[in-house]
Amino acid sequence: MEDYRRFAIYWAPEAGPLASFAAAWLGWDPAEGQDVAHPEVPGLPAPVEALTEAPRKYGFHGTLKAPFRLVEGATQDGLRAALAAFAARTAPVTLDGLRLTRLDRFLALLPEGEEAPLTRLAGEIVEAFEPFRAPLSPEDMLRRQADALPPRQRDLLGRYGYPYVMEEFRFHLTLTGPLEPQEAEAAHAALAPAIAPLLPRPFRIAAICLFGEAADGRFHNLHRYALTG
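Predicted structure:
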């Protein structure tokens, strides 16, 4: 079993048109663990490779528990067993759909409809898998710019290793790195026609995935766990 540097719990689409397009768009397929040729999308303000450089290594995903190192004494096998048990007692979550939008300085897919059930699911995952997470190092805190965060996010960072959890959580599927406003507008206009037919309605989270970060920094989809509770 490969020795991964960090693990994360993500939502990722099952094999199909959205997964295939998103893997090509980002240039990395985490399920297959391989690079993918970018698609031809007319009208973009820059090459796809440049627009997607920042999110490429993570693969197409929605964060449920952000990347973490295993605490001393924890194992990948133990994490996998805990995820299987969690998934077996947890029900799927259904939202109205997904939409392409600007989120801060990047483009992402955001859910439509009532998000409270998804927020609760993410919070349960964060809490349930805290025993597996090693504490952040001083270097981690510096990298996260903890001192610049609002008080509540700083508290969450200290408690859970990530500031955007619980009431600060916002589920999203990142599609670009940071863009200038005009770039974002042009990229949105070009990407929307290509991705709109692929967006699910309704959007159902029926499984969660364990991702692992390999030595080269790329994240791999190690296993999908169906929510059957």
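Summary: The domain at 6-226 is CATH 3.90.1140.10 (Cyclic Phosphodiesterase; Chain: A,).
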